[in-house]
Design brief:
This protein has 141 residues and is mostly beta strands. Helices cover 0% and strands 28% of the residues. It is built from no helices and six strands. The strands form two sheets. A three-stranded antiparallel beta sheet has the order 1-2-5, with no helix packed on it. It has a three-stranded antiparallel beta sheet with strand order 4-3-6, with no helix packed on it.
Amino acid sequence: LCVDANGLASGKDTHLSVGVCLMKGEYDETLNWPLNSEITIQLLNWREDKAHVETIVDHYNAPIAYRTRVIDEGTAPGSLLEPQVIPHKDLEYNADNNTEYLHNDTLCFRVSKVIIHTGPEVPSWYITPGTESPYLLPPCT
């Protein structure tokens, strides 16, 4: 899980950015590569068990380099993220909505669903050619 409290790309200085960075793991042999997955991340509301902020990180539209197996333990291909998960102003307590995402300088996240698509590579018609996604970060080192 990658979190940038000050935001990245279109969320810079205004939003919380959240995403996923692939890392080497002991179960890599059991996965089909390149990775085709959907990962649902929730920013939890401290006030009650509803009104969580949910974002889905989808590897389908990512360049192949961001879906490739991590070989070297010290590096990762990059991060996929949603740059505008929630505006900074909405993190504090809101009595009207009974929401509070930032409590005692703490944010709480939950990965609520991971869908790993198996089978053949995603068809090329599914990926829009020539699109530059603001969701991509440079490789982690």
